[in-house]
Amino acid sequence: MKEHVHVLADLKNVSPDLFGIPTGTKLDEMFYTIEEKDGRFVRKPLNGIPYKAIINVVGVPDTGKSLLAEQFALYQAHNDYKVMFVTVESPSQFLYGSMKLKAEYLGLDFEKIKNNIIVIDAALGDELRDNPKALMDTMAYVIKEKKTTITVIDSITGLYEAKEVMARQIVRQFFNFLKKWNQTGMFVSQKRSSQGAETAEAAGGLAVAHIVDGTIVMDKKLIETKWDINLYNMPLGSILRTIRIDGCRLAGHDSKTWVFEITEAGTIKIKKPLEQIVNTSK
Amino acid sequence: MSEGFETISTPKGSESIDELAEKVFLESIKVVGGLRNLINYRNLTWLTSLAEAAYAVVLKNEAMKTNKQIAEFLGVTENTVRNILSADEQKVKEFLEGKLEEVNEHKAGAIAKLAYKHIKEKSTS
Fold it and tell me: Would you say the ipTM is above 0.95?
């Protein structure tokens, strides 16, 4: 029991440094720390998601969650970091083509990237998808053998399919596992409940958001009324895509809702805050 | 297999549920004092209960199955699974040591839980 009790001062030596792990998107500028400059505290962009943070990316289907996760993996692999990509939804053979296209579109070195990403395919068989312990043992093997420092799980929701009552327990297990192995991680969560699509709660319930270090919410809105057209300055039938950081316990962050687009290659391009496109004139 | 990416699609470095359940079952026999001591309990149907309990404990703790899923796997009722998983290990331990004359607990469940704990303690030490 004694090993669980610490004097705050003693934690200094084990406290991780605060810096950013880039995603290759404007999200990197949205996380920040503060530093003293000329007697005042000013924001300093982290240039990425916080090191060793486990970030949950939530949204209803087709909001770009997997695209963001893949872009993050590509960017890190391009920068010579080893990435463990656990695919639970889409079989691994579909991942290769999609990632190659994105890499080429973003001008990243795919020859380097493909040797820096190790895929764990939990999509097809249930040996890994339905057995969290077996999956974590396999992940531990990859971390030890391949020295990965970045982990993506797409999706964490797929690991508690048909046992939503276990959602919190399973997320907690994988969260603790990634912390133990010093990974910076991204979970993709499918949002399915009746909770508002713009909220973080529906992905596994309110408790899941409390487990992870931070949440990014991705949403979409169909422009379908005259009001929408006037308010958002977008044509009828188009899709307004938004992204925001809904809390992060490890670093300060921009709380604004931002508008983004999905490019023809399936990459995420964050453009401007929603408040800048909304028409507030009468 | 994905061209280019190194891909892993089967478990690595992991015991299967069957292997672990068997370990729990065998450890359970040690918990009751060994095979010879088991004779004293004089109830051979107990062995099936013990096998069920070993699987229930492993499926709950390792594979994180719900009680309903475990019941379907074992072909028993959810109530039985609940009784197995909520059995009081301390009371059953005292019963085995002769300190209690009788206990109203799922004995096989408690023994399997004790056995599982022993296995986990051994693997982390």
Answer: no
